[in-house]
Amino acid sequence: LEELTRMSESNFDIQSPPCVLCGWTDNCPEKYGEKKTYVEQNLTVHYYCLLMSSGIWQRGEEDEGVDGFLITDIRKEVNRAAKLKCNICKKKGASIGCVAPKCKRSYHFPCGLRKECIFQFMEDFRSYCWEHKPVQIFPDKESRGPSQCTICLDLVEHLPLYGVLKSPCCKNAWFHRECLQYQALSAGIFFFRCTVCNNKDKFQEEMLRMGIHIPEKDASWELEENAYQDLLQCYQHCDIRRCLCKEGRDYNEPDSKWEIKRCQSCGSRGTHLACSSMKSWEQNWECVECRSIFAKSGKYSKQKKRSLATSEKTDGTTCLLEEPSPKYPRQSPGSQHSFLQCVILSPKIICQNNLSPCSRLELPPSNRMTMSLSPLMSNRNWSIRKKQLRTQRREVSSILKELKQQINTKTTRLNINTENIWNTALKGFRQRNFRPTNTIEVKFTNCKNRLKTDTSTESKHLFFQLLMGHLQNSSLFEGSSAKNLSLDLQALKENLYFEAGKMIAVSLVHGGPSPGFFSKILFNCLVYGPENVKPNLDDVVDIDVAQTIKKIKYSSSLSSLQSTIHECYDFLAAAGCLRPITDFCDKNMLVNDLLTYHVIKRIISPLESFRQGLKTLGVLEKMEMHPVAFSSIFCHKPERLSAETLCDLFTIHCSSGVKEVGGADFWMGYLQDVESGESVVTLEDILYFVTGSFSIPPIGFDPEPTIKFLRIGYPIGNRLLNCLELPITKTYESFKNKMELTIRNTLRVERE
After folding, report:
1. Which DSSP state fits 69?
2. Ranges assigned E (strand) in 522-655
3. CA 162/CA 183 separation, integer angstroms
4. Do 425 and 469 belong to one domain?
5. Are residues 503 and 617 in the same domain?
6. Tens digits of per-residue pLDDT, 132-174?
7. Which residues contact 644 (CB under 8 A, 6 or more apart)?
8. How do 155-156 and 270-272 pair as beta strands?
9. Looking at the 3D structure of the chain, how many domains does it have?
10. Within-domain flag for 23
């Protein structure tokens, strides 16, 4: 019935043209994304259908095509999908495919939703069919009885169903999928978090994995025009029973006896200085209601009168800009917001800007906006940022090539077991004859099909890649994606932090991959010194520690601050920050000391040992001289390969005879087809076929990759010379078929 209704509407509703990818006329932004029609191009498309289609990427600027998706690319994708039948509705045009190995199911986006497929709006925008979709694991010992959804408060069954999701950070937090999706669309990436414990990183990671779309935009309540206008009005009224001012209760003359003073506790009552017999504006004043509340609670006598003139000033701090992951090729539409909404100060601070800074109430980050630019950057700004990163990485490449001149021809062999990468690498680095300046040979002891000793760069690439992956997930580091050093006393005793720093330095100079997982605070401590770095709450990895510091930071009065300090006696004593607090202004210094201890001082020994290891081959010295350039490889993952990147990477050696048959044109056209998804191989497969590496190392390749066109039957990847030998063919179809057949079969054999 639903299908017949939809077909009926598509036949008679001429004002609602169907989406070119799914064929549905429905216009439901919450389910299918914004539906846009472009009359000149005769094109209508759902945004989510475009995002999840398997054969298209955003290659244009933000204002080009459809949110950066070029019209020509969309047409190609429509043509590709026209050949594929949907496994659900059995109609053509299925542009989305399951990414599970050997699964050939294709479907439309709306059909996939109905069949409970999972669409991951992150990284490569993967899609999983109903059979291969990721699921959450529920322990058997957990209660199977229903509980309340913490968003809609209706009952939700504790069952492994598509419509039920469990919080990864709270044991008893359960949600309806639909409730979570609506909350994510409303809150956006900066405010979407667990409704119970307020965790953001772990919660968002799990929800993205389970197919919840979290748009990169500010929360809907932040985008309302003049949403905080009423809160920006300061209270200007004298509430004393007998007002002495002849000009009236609303008259306010600053720096005179007729200046209005607001209640220091609630800020919602006021008095002229003369009406309350106050000689100075610096005197405290509380309204009758607040005095009554304090008197009943027994706290009024404990309130200390303090001169506001001696209060310490606190300035607003700006928010750091967050960079989108290079793996995010697309941005959600409508993510821009006006500068005016970025610069509204906290209502509590604005309304009491005549008070001393010490009497201002500090609000949690979720309720406080500071003078800063939005963390969200437009696609155009991100495009500029990518160009900057490329420039910085080219600079790093030149510096590392300088350092590589220290490497001599004497060889050191490392016997590596890929199943025990850390211990065998550690043993190799600690052997007596190991010298960082020697040429490294890698022998894989547990790989029967490999050569006994492989002197090519292929084994080194694989070894350093596995080693960096192990380090990222080891106990030496803590955090989710951007990591800081942890405090592992056993590792410190065994000098493992030094060895880890040494391994990273050797990897960079010997042609291995970059770490790419360092947090900004760790990188800054390494290059500027820990004494010159000021941490903030976002740098605290331990959730319990962060919550305790927040509780102290957001204390609203001296009494609540002292009470919190009493509760956290052991916590403060362990950090060496236990001290008597007699003034509310001491709070900021206490918070800064706690942050410095937990983020920096606590790991000062591992940090120093790690820095000593990074000095190997002069890497740390170059990092200190070029901090901006090196941050591009230590704090950012390598950017996704593109056809343009590979074109620039390879130098073509081409004879005149080859030019006549279009050999170079065939090569560049093939890269475009691979990038647009019209091939069974990927750009990473091509790079690996030639060099033995799936990514471009920071130092680049030695020798530089080249292409030769020869009278041969099939392409050959010479990894010793990084040379791709291509066959001369008469037609592009023949060239493409030979490329795909050879690369696919070669990689399949190597994987087996």
Report:
1. B
2. 651-653
3. 17
4. yes
5. yes
6. 999 988 776 665 678 888 888 888 888 888 899 999 988 778 8
7. none
8. unpaired
9. 4
10. no
Neighbours of 321 (CB within 10 A): 13
pLDDT tens sequence across 675-717: 988 888 999 999 989 988 888 999 988 889 999 988 889 999 9
SS (H, E, C) 584-600: CCHHHHHHHHHHHHHHC
3-state secondary structure of 582: coil
Whether residue 398 is found in the same domain as residue 481: yes
Contact 144, 152 (CB under 8 A): no
Other C-beta atoms closer than 10 Å to the C-beta of 573 total 10
Residue 182 has pLDDT above 60, yes or no: yes
Distance CA 139, CA 214 (A): 27
Enter the tokens of residue 514.
Answer: 């970059």
Helix, strand and coil percent figures for the chain, each rounded to 5: 40, 10, 50
Structural domain containing residue 180: 146-222
Q: Distance between CA atoms of 538 and 520, rounded to whole angstroms? A: 11
Q: Which 3 state secondary structure label does DSSP give 727?
A: strand
Our separate counts of H helices and E strands in the chain read 27, 20
**Predicted model pTM:** 0.51
Considering the domain architecture, whether residues 491 and 626 belong to the same structural domain is answered as yes
pLDDT digits (tens, 9 = 90+) for 414-446: 999 988 999 999 999 999 889 999 999 998 887
Half-sphere exposure of 416 (CA within 13 A, CB side): 26
Determine the residue type at 332. Answer: S
Residue 463 forms part of a structural domain? yes
Can you spell out the DSSP letters for 276-332?
A: GT-S-TTS----HHHHHHHHHHT-GGGPPP--GGGPPP----PPPPPPPPTT-----
> What whole-number distance in Å separates Cα of residue 499 and Cα of residue 509?
15
Length of the chain, please? 752
Question: Can you read off the two tokens belonging to residue 297?
Answer: 């609670």
Type and span of the H or E element at 467: helix 457-472
